[in-house]
């Protein structure tokens, strides 16, 4: 009885610990036997944590309060178990039913139906993992002491491999394989001739062409579909198919050097039979599409009859113009010209059988190898070309080309310039000469311009030169005028330039004039000119004109200063000043001034008036004085007569 109480107490505390640790479940196990308490209304969670025990000493669990449940020491496979869970009544541990039992789980080796459980732990750890309650009635815990059993079973099945089939259809130069009833994937195709595998290819499409087979030949075939690590053999109505017959148009002939003629085809023509007098000279046994024969015929029609080993009663004749072994191409003498028109004169060995042999040259620029080749007649001057000649016989092209030859098209252009100038225009004319390119001078065009500002003219071309007029220029101004040769609208050679100066013209603007009157009849003029002289600076002069009077005062100095003296008093004058450059005068600058009155004359006149007044006054006084004296003398004389005496002054009068 004591042992039963101890066991009940232990199970009670185990249920409490399992309920408390349900929020963080430990590792999931596949086999467990757990006893829980049903103190709450919700059913307890069933743990699937594995419990492993061995006959050896068991290491202590992670929590000392976990229940210790004995299980088999054997490791558990990936299986599910039939777990039997015993639930306890709502009674306290002390009132646990004595007849409560714990049933050990029985292991079911059946696989899980949905997922595979992880492998059982091989450690000695014993873990308890609470699981959430299931909605299934099988997983609900009974409120009374009952036993619930859950069983899960699974069955694994392997899908059947796909089936495939194929058909074989003869086509030009071979066979066509068509795979049916199979998804796209990798296929191994093998073709066998007489028990010897001749072709084996791996393809990733359901349709594939096998070419370069022999005509009229029966081939065995096999197709394998690579399915995972397996090779599935595809079925067919038959494992042998015969190729088509070959026609004469399926073979082409091509000449080569060293006395060989080579015939080529998309068929495997290694089985063709040659006449007894013809020797095959195949260069490579692996090249089954080419058949070469040797011949000594030169520049003639060569005919050969082919028969087939595989196609019964099949033969055809092929006729070709043979130009093999013309000569050693390195012995050709090539003499290129310089300049234009470009000429290359090859010297070919004389072969009596070969007549009407010509060479057609095409060239490309050496520093631009990707350009389209040009014939000699379209080459540009001042270029370096690499030219190769194609040999023609009777105007029929061959496969022979000459070694490359260097060609230089530099032209020794000489441009002679002449000009006619005015003060606002320049007429430029030129004539071009050349020793290397004299025959193509008419193909040159020209651009003409003056100054760096890009003043351009419209050229009037001639057979070996042209003229160009530049108008609207500034007088007495330096320009650099030149002519740029062009060929096919491309700039070639260097620009021919010459410095030119337009003729003198009228100076710019007019002088600014300042007029002053330092004295009553003197006018002083000063001026300043800011515009261009438009002529030689050393010939610059200033000219001043006075109106009225028309007096000119040229001034040779660079300073513009003039003085007009002895002018009329109290007179209005107008002054005009121009700048002269030795050729033209500028527009006049103007100024005005009034002379003052003659102050000296006024003073003299005043003096004269004063003097005249004084003299007049003196005369009046004198007359008055004389008259009075005369009157006095008469009075004295009267008195003297009366007194019979002489008047005063009688002696002087008598002396007179």
Give a verbal description of the structure.
Helix content is 11%, strand content 36%. The longest helix has 45 residues, at 599-643. The N and C termini lie far apart (218 Å). With 656 residues, the chain is mostly beta strands. The protein folds into six domains: 1-157, no CATH class; 165-242, Immunoglobulin-like (Sandwich), CATH 2.60.40; 248-322, Immunoglobulin-like, CATH 2.60.40; 329-408; 414-501, Immunoglobulins (Immunoglobulin-like), CATH 2.60.40.10; 512-597, Immunoglobulins (Immunoglobulin-like, Sandwich), CATH 2.60.40. The chain contains three helices and 41 strands. Strands 7, 8, 10, 11 and 12 form a five-stranded antiparallel sheet that branches. Strands 21, 22, 23, 24 and 25 form a five-stranded antiparallel sheet that branches. Strands 28, 29, 32, 33 and 34 form a five-stranded antiparallel sheet that branches.
